[in-house]
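Whether sequence alone determines local backbone shape is best considered at the level of individual chains. For completeness, the protein is quoted in full, as a sequence line and a line of structure tokens:
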Amino acid sequence: MELRQLRYFLTVAEEASFTRAAARLHVAQPGVSAQIRSLERELGQPLLDRSARAVRLTEAGAAVLPYARAALAAVEDVRTAVDELTGLLRGKVAVGMVAGSAALGVPEVLAAFHDAHPGVEVTLTEADTDPMLDALRAGRLDVAIAAFAGAAPDGIETRTLSDQPLVAAVGEGDPLAGRRGVTLAELGDRALIGMRPGTAMRAILDAACAAEGVAPRIAFEAGNPQVLGDLAARGLGVAILPESTARARPDLRVVPVTVPPMRGRVALAWRAEGPNGPAARAFIEHARARLATPPE
């Protein structure tokens, strides 16, 4: 039994797919399949059910999974113990972030961490909050910069990086330009430009509309706040944006939404039980110290 076989098995189990596992491991899919078959022959039991579209654990696979995870963690602990003696920090840190959060200083934080710890491999992916939280809980991500419509779910610790109103943003020639405020009800007959469903900002907007009895007319959806601003600047509707994003653009006019007020929060998030290893712990402390924080 080889550690490589256990690592491949664990990755396929987490991804529920040989294809995604191979991409994550940066190896060819046939190699992943061959190693897992070799492990199954050695154990005398199939560990994965390949009959469905998504790969699933068999009963034997579910029994083996925690031991495979523990064995790989023990090997990492051995490496860590030696690195600590020699003053080195090694390992991997998987970071996720929602679109638009780079403005909080994420690239600078990543660069500074790399300079301080060149032996640590850091990866960054962009995704919506819900799949990132699932990845955090499953151990596929170590830390995430996520947007929240409310409190963080159980098992997730957060540190708020930004907490600000969501506003209406329009182009210079829009009838709302120059208004000191607008209610959500007044926007009911306007073409709205909002984040796609599944994002925290869209959840905030949908909840506010439901509370006010407003049926919003979402004319355009996107996954990046800057794209929403581009559309609004060209007169295609009213974008719902974080205030700082809207005010940073000279081609937009900001109109506060007075009733009901809406706020969005972006936070650094990690597992409450702690990250997988010392590299991830070091990154979280580094990010907490360096990322932007909301004004008092």
